[in-house]
Amino acid sequence: MQHPLHVHAPHPPAPHGPHGAPVIAHINHNTRHGRNCNGNDTSHSYPQAVPHSSLPKHIPIPPIPRDGDVLFELIMFVFSAICCALQFLIIYRSVFWLPYSFTNFALNVQMIDIHLLIFIGVILMRRLIYTMIARVGQAYLSSVLWPAARKVLQVIMLLWVGAVILICLYNIMHTHPIVKLFYLCYPLSLYFILFGLTVGPFFDLAVFPISDLDQKCSTLLSFDGSPLHNCSTSPEAIREEVDVLKSDINNRMKQVLFNSVFSAYYAGFIPCCFATTMMYYETYWATFHILWLWLGSFVMYLTHCFPVRYCDVMHRCALHLGRWHRLIMPHSNVNWTGNKLWPNESVVKHYDKLYQALNTTNAAEPGNQVHNRFYDLFQNPTRIYLVVLSMHMLMILIQLVQLATAQEWYQSVSMASLLFFNYYTLYKLLRDVLISHRVYKAEHIVKDRDNS
C-alpha cells in the first residue's frame, strides 16, 4: 500500500511547448533575457525541463542500534533518581565515621520528608510506568482499538498521579510554608504554555498536541507518528512535507526542553528548596549538580528524540527543498512560480527581489526564512551532531576537572555517578557522528560525480 505522503492534490496543468509537449519552466541565469549578476546583456532562452537524473540521490542509513522506549525511560528514571539521591546526599550528608556520631548512615535520612520523596518519585517514574503499560497494550490490542485505549490509559494515569500528588501536598502543607507548595506546582504552568490542555505529552514523548497543521497533515505521518520522506517531483508536495516536518521538529524540541528542565527541577532544585533551615550545604556544589543534571538530561533526550534516521528524513527533504540566495541586479522579467522545480543557478524575481538557486533542485519559496533555516540545518545533519558532541565533551571535561579537584568524598561520588551516564551518551553521539559523516560524504561524492 502506498504511504499517504505519496498522495497529493491534483497539480495545475504544466505549460506546453510549441509541439504540445509538456515542459517545466526553468531559467538559466547565464542565458536569460536582461542582465546577469555582472551587469552584462544576455539573450532570452526558453524554459527547459529538468531531467530525472538531476534529482537528488539518497544513500540509505545503515541499521543503527537504538534504545527502545521502555529501556530509554528506564535509563532516564534511574539517572534522575540517582541524581536526586546525590542532591540529598550533598544537603543531608553526615559524619558517620566519627566515634560519637548519632547515625551510622552517610545520609541523615530522618531529616528528609517522606511525602516529598514520594512526590518526586511519582513525578519521575510516571512515563516509565505509562510506557511499560502502553507497550503491553500495543502488543495485545489491534491498531484500530489502540488509539482509544491509549487515551483511556492516559486519563487513568493522570487520575493516579493527581491523587498521589494531592495526598502528598496535603501532608507537606503541615510541615512547610504554603509558599513552597507553589514551587512544586510551578512546572505545570510551563507545561500548559508549551502543550496546552492536553494529557498525552505529559506521559508519552511520541504524543504531541494536535494543532491545525497537524490535523491537516495527520495522514502524512506513519502509524507511530514518525514522518516519512517522499521523493516527490511536485514542489507543492515538497513544501507541504517541510511544513509537516517543521511541526514535528518543534513538537520534539518542546518535549526535549520540557522534560530536561522538568527532571532537573524536581530531582535537583526541589531538594534544595525544601532543605531545613538548620542544614548547611555547599550552594556552589549543589548549583553545579543541578546544571549537570539538566545538561545531561537535555543531551540524552536530544539523542533519543532526534536519531540519525530521523535527521536523515529531514536531510532528504532539504535536498529536494533547496535554497535561494538574494542577488542585487537591475531588473528581471522572470517571476518565481510555486508549481515549478527550479534547477541550480536559476535567477528569478519574487516580490520585486532577485534570487539565485543554490541547489540541484529548488522547490523553496525565495525569501522564506523557514525554508532557508530548514535547508541550512539539515543540508548536512553531521554539523548538528558535531555541535551537540562538542558541548557534551566540554561538559565531560569540566566534570573530570571537578572530579580531580574534589576534596570531599560526596563530591567524588557525585561526579563519578554523573560521568558514568554521560559516557554512555558520549558513545552514542560519537557513533552517530561517524556514521552520518561517512554517509553524507559518500552522498556528496556521488553528487559531484553526477554534476561532472
Automatic annotation (TrEMBL):
InterPro entries on file: Uncharacterised_TMEM39
Pfam families in the record: Tmp39
The keyword Cell membrane is annotated on this UniProt entry: no
GO cellular component entries: membrane
The keyword Disulfide bond appears for this protein: no
Keywords attached to this entry: Membrane, Transmembrane, Transmembrane helix
Bilayer disposition of the protein: Multi-pass membrane protein
Superkingdom classification of source: Eukaryota
Subcellular localization, as worded in the UniProt entry: Membrane
Transmembrane annotation, as ranges: 70-93, 105-125, 152-173, 188-208, 256-280, 286-306, 384-403
Region (Disordered): 1-24
Protein family: Belongs to the TMEM39 family.
Protein's recorded name: Transmembrane protein 39A
Organism: Thrips palmi
Taxonomic path: Eukaryota, Metazoa, Ecdysozoa, Arthropoda, Hexapoda
